[in-house]
Design a protein that fits this description.
The complex is a heterodimer. By secondary structure, chain A is mainly alpha-helical. Helices cover 44% and strands 5% of the residues of chain A. Chain B has a seven-stranded mixed sheet. Classes of the chains: A mainly alpha, B alpha+beta.
Chain lengths: 131, 167
């Protein structure tokens, strides 16, 4: 009995495409990044970003599970991390539903506004969403 | 002054809060916590200074609501976010706290829109505050109760557009 060795024609797995990340940093933020890189002995921005993402991902996961994040000093004093963006993904985030009263005219006015094309955002609203 | 905005907590100091309007002071001091934790009819987000992390210096209260289906051509209730209250302690007025609170409210409403659907934000503004809300694009609804607050509308799609507007 002979065995024929068949070389499996496997196509080389495609290398996952790396994406570029560019950020505009204010001078103070830039100094902060450089300082952190030095402290953490990180050689490249890629390593810095990768570590920062890993830490952020962990924090997001914890808050999503409803866990709170604390730091604890040697004396046992605790400080809680409260970060508005993380609070938005915490499970207790959901808003309760309430009933509100309407006049017939208000409802007509609402229906008219809601069926229009949306208005362009004002400068103040744009600023609010960036802050 | 570094300001944080987070959910109201039971230990927060609300007694010294004074925005110059008794019903708004009273709501924070007597009802906000109970409405949030016990009755679940509104969530209050408070502004605090990092230097005094328990003292509330501003707040806004949000809830989900709806407008009944009969008014709409597609015959379904219109889901909406209700910005029920917004107030800033007068000792901290002019420092951008109102802007910070309403910015947070917009972001929360957007998230609610993504999670459970929400077509607009509605608020009942004091008549002397309508111009402030109009700066953010709120439009007055017609036909409200005389001598009552002015109900105002902001389309959630407008907020989404604002988020996507390039710098």
């Amino acid at each position: 009995m002979t065995f024929k060795q068949v070389r499996k024609q496997t196509s080389q797995p495609k290398k996952a495409r790396k994406s570029k990340f560019q950020a505009d940093l204010a001078p103070a933020e830039d100094r902060m990044v450089r300082g952190l890189k030095e402290e953490l002995q990180l050689g490249s921005n890629t390593d810095f970003l990768s570590d920062a993402v890993a830490l952020f991902r962990w924090a997001v996961g914890e808050r999503k599970r409803g866990h709170r994040i604390f730091s604890e000093s040697e004396k046992g004093e605790r400080k809680e991390l409260v970060f508005p963006r993380l609070e938005r993904i915490a499970p207790e985030f959901s808003l309760p539903r309430v009933e509100i009263s309407w006049t017939t005219k208000e409802l007509e006015s609402l229906a008219e506004l809601a069926s229009r094309e949306p208005a362009d955002p004002t400068e103040t609203l744009i600023r609010a969403m960036r802050d | 002054m570094a300001v944080l905005i987070r959910r109201l907590e039971e230990q927060d100091e609300v007694a010294p809060f004074d925005c110059g309007d008794e019903p708004l002071n009273n709501y924070l001091k007597r009802h906000a916590w109970a409405n949030q934790q016990k009755s679940s009819i509104g969530v209050t987000f408070v502004a605090i200074d990092e230097g005094a992390p328990r003292t509330v210096i501003g707040y806004c209260t949000l809830a989900m609501a709806g407008a009944p289906r009969d008014a709409f051509p597609k015959k379904y209730d219109l889901p909406l976010s209700l910005l029920a209250r917004l107030a800033v302690d007068r000792r901290f007025s002019g420092k951008g706290l109102g802007h910070a609170l309403i910015s947070e409210a917009f972001k929360i409403a957007l998230r609610a829109a993504d999670d459970v659907g929400c077509r607009c934000i509605i608020t009942d503004a004091y008549p002397n505050r309508t111009a402030w809300y109009a700066r953010y694009g709120f439009v007055p609804l017609e036909g409200g109760v005389e001598d009552g607050p002015q109900r105002m509308f902001l389309d959630i799609r407008t907020i989404r557009m604002a988020l996507k507007t390039p710098k």
